[in-house]
Design brief:
Rossmann fold; seven-stranded mixed β-sheet; five-stranded mixed β-sheet; 12 helices; 40% helix; alpha/beta; single chain; globular
């Protein structure tokens, strides 16, 4: 994902001199090509995330299009007040790019995990939140963020995600994508964990369970229509996320379900009001925290039973 984002940002900055890359001493090496070819559109502000967001807001007020990038946990938590007051309150055209979404920094522990960022940022007016699931989707999401006039939080994984899209598709902010059809249950997720959701759905096929999979790449604004259609056609919904179920994708979908007034079986699979536990590979940490492929299959069976 990171390479796909950097490649897209490089292309945008070459074409549009208003585009700037801001970093807070994180990712300096991976920006080598960008820094070498576009030095006047690159700023490393040092380890001062709040200051970076404030600078970005000031640049946007002068007609620039800043992309402020660092580890998502440091952006969402350390710089929250600046995101709220300088960017969202003023409706500035700032793109906030956080890497390491969810538990993908599995070996670094909960201090580096973005498992509450959606809960905090989703409540901020004017902020669009996009959580792409693959390299191709990152490119489309970065382009959509650039084209959108206003604050955007682009929530990325790392640089190891496998591609889940086989061909081009139309990416639109606020319009989710049905990756796989199924009539028994609908599985909704976003970001790096979506590959696990897909794999689990294919394994469930072998058990005679038809699981629909929805890529809810835009967390805000949420695609209400696709959720209501899934309720009507499958009657059972499960959200899966390596994020606290309080305030995350599950909460967002639950709000749509509650306001729809439609009867549905529904469950949220994610961190249950707790910080992530354990260290190891991303797969290991997901399993330890109840959101691995095996956990998804087991939860589906219980819900349908």
């Amino acid at each position: 994902m990171r390479t796909a984002y950097l490649d897209t940002l490089y292309e945008l900055a070459q074409k549009d001199k208003r585009v700037y890359a801001l970093i807070s001493d994180n990712g300096a090496i991976v920006y080598d090509k960008y820094r070498k070819d576009l030095p006047e559109q690159y700023l490393n502000v040092g380890i001062s995330e709040a200051n970076m967001v404030g600078m970005a807001a000031g640049m946007a007020s002068c007609g620039k299009i800043p992309f402020a990038y660092t580890i998502g946990a440091f952006l969402a938590y350390r710089a929250y007040e600046f995101i709220r007051n300088d960017v969202c309150l003023q409706n500035q055209n700032v793109k906030i790019v956080g890497t390491g979404a969810g538990e993908v920094y599995s070996a670094l522990g909960p201090t580096h995990h973005s498992t509450e960022d959606l809960g905090g940022l989703r409540s901020l007016p004017n902020l669009v939140i996009i959580c792409p699931a693959s390299p191709l989707e990152v490119k489309k999401a970065a382009m959509a963020a650039y084209e959108h006039d206003g604050p955007v939080y682009l929530r990325l994984g790392t640089n190891k995600e496998k591609e889940i899209y086989n061909n081009e598709y139309a990416f639109q902010i606020g319009k989710a994508v049905t990756l796989k059809d199924g009539n028994d249950i609908t599985l909704i997720g976003a970001g790096s964990i979506l590959k696990d959701i897909l794999d689990a759905s294919f394994q469930l096929d072998a058990e005679g369970i038809g699981a629909r999979v929805i890529d809810m790449h835009t967390i805000k604004p949420i695609d209400k229509e696709i959720i209501i259609r899934a309720i009507d056609e499958t009657g059972t919904i499960m959200t899966i996320e390596d994020h606290n179920i309080i305030g995350g994708i599950g909460s967002t979908v639950a709000e749509v379900i509650a306001e729809s007034g439609m009867p549905v079986k529904f469950i949220r699979l994610g961190l249950k009001d707790q910080f992530s536990r354990g260290y190891g590979s991303y797969d290991d940490v997901k399993e330890m925290n109840g959101v691995g492929i095996g956990n998804i299959r087991e939860a589906v069976r219980k819900l349908l039973a």
